[in-house]
Amino acid sequence: MEALILQVLNGLDKGSAYALIALGLTLIFGTLGVVNFAHGALFMIGAFCAVTLNRLLTLSHIVVDETQKDFLGNPLNVEVPYLYDFFGQAAGDVIIDWSVPISILVAIPVMMLIGVAMERGLIKHFYKRPHADQILVTFGLAIVLQEIIKYFYGANPIPTPAPSAFTGSFDFGAALGFDPNLIIYPYWRLVYFAFAAVIIGAVFAFLQFTTFGMVVRAGMQDRETVGLLGIHIDRRFTIMFGLAAAVAGLAGVMYTPINSPNYHMGMDFLVLSFVVVVVGGMGSLGGAVLAGFLLGVLESFASMGQVLEVLPGLNQVILYVVAIIVLLTRPRGLMGRRGVMED
Amino acid sequence: MSERKDLTRRRVLKAGATATAAGAVTPYFFTSPALADGHEGFRNAPKGDTVTLGFNVPQSGPYADEGADELRAYELAVEHLNGGGDGGMMGTFSSKALKGNGILGKKVAYVTGDTQTKSDAARASARSMIEKDGAIMITGGSSSGVAVAVQALCQEAGIIFMAGLTHSNDTTGKDKKANGFRHFFNSYMSGAALAPVLAKNYGADRKAYHLTADYNWGYTTEQAVQESTEALGWETVAAVKTPLTQTDFSSYIAPVLQSGADTLVLNHYGGNMVNSLTNAVQFGLRDKQVNGKDFQIVVPLYSRLMAKGAGANVKGIFGSTNWHWSLPDEGSKAFVKSFGTKYGFPPSQAAHTCYVQTMLYADAAERAGTFNPCGIVEALEGFEFDGLGNGKTLYRAEDHQCFKDVLVVKGKENPSSEFDLLEIVEVTPVDQVTYAPDHPQMRDAEGNVVPIGTCNPGA
Question: What is the ipTM of this complex?
Answer without folding.
Answer: 0.82
